[in-house]
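pasting for ref
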Amino acid sequence: MDKAPEAFLTIGEMADRLGVKTHILRYWEEQFPMLKPLKRAGGRRMYRPSDVALLDQIQDLLSKQGYTIRGARAFLAKGGKAEGVAAATSAPVTEPVATPAVDLFAKPAASTLVPELRAIRDRLAQALAAA
């Protein structure tokens, strides 16, 4: 017998609906502070329709859209807006830089390698001194 859409779901029913194990739902409760199902006597969890919708969104973010737990939490904390995630991770969005193809296994001539390494060393030393 199917429940009405507004009926509360147990943790087992919610796990079956999402196709995950119950311990995953308990872990998500720890990781997503906005997820707070009702707890009845004995600690039995009951998921309200709002909890069900949130869990559906979490499942979609994690399994279909490829978010990490941290990224999904930031996304939901910002109201589900994509620009909130970029700000939360504080990683600047840049255009991809074209890099020349390099044969990693080719051995450069020793005469060119040493001066290049010294130049890199000197630039690093200057950067550290400036910092």
